[in-house]
Description:
This protein is mostly helical. It contains eleven helices and two strands, in the order αααββαααααααα. The protein folds into two domains: 13-89, Winged helix-like DNA-binding domain superfamily/Winged helix DNA-binding domain (Arc Repressor Mutant, subunit A); 95-232, GntR ligand-binding domain-like (Four Helix Bundle (Hemerythrin (Met), subunit A)), CATH 1.20.120. The protein has a two-stranded antiparallel ribbon with strand order 1-2. This is FCD domain protein.
Amino acid sequence: MKTLPKFNIRKTYEEVADYLREQIISGAYVPGARLPSLRELGETLGVGQSTVREALSSLKTLGLITMKQGEGTFVTRHDPEEIISTFESMRLVTQQEIIELLEVRKIIESGTARLAAERRTEDELKKIGEALAEMEQALSSEELGDQADWKFHYAVAAASHNQTLQTVMTSISEAVSRSLQASRQELYQIKGVPENLYKEHANIYEAIRERNGSRAEAAMLYHLQGVEEKMLD
């Protein structure tokens, strides 16, 4: 493998991610190869471990690497055309971007859940329940279920009968979709988390079904705060 370059400490994680991506494309890291540790990469590239961590997080989101707890980080594929296509069509998602989006969602969606509980119709409750059922199916199939997750949250917003809230949710839908995929890829490596995430959504659904606004608001806030805390661990 070629000697890794030294990066200026002011350089961003994107440049580290881009360099590692090129290494994978060139075959320097073959499928199944274990990448150096955070410390080793940081020392070799001349950047902080937090920069390396963000770079690896973005590559993981693109599906180029997988992180196995206690074992390390491994290359999953290195087909040049596929990597380039994926990289160009999907903006990097970092942990910081996910945290910032969760902060916005906590402010918006906790109140949205309260309104949904107070205003929802039977048809709207059915749509929320259908999304929850899709999440349960994804869980049993060991899939991420990120699309069902978004469908659930949007259905809650629709049940609020507030067009402005629905417009806000639509405007952040792309960012939410990317963050859901990225966060679930990370959180699903933690034992018990997939089941707990499903239960949290089920609690939100039950509160809305019972028309309990305060409980729905608390359940939604608890869910989003929990995701944020796990992402910060």
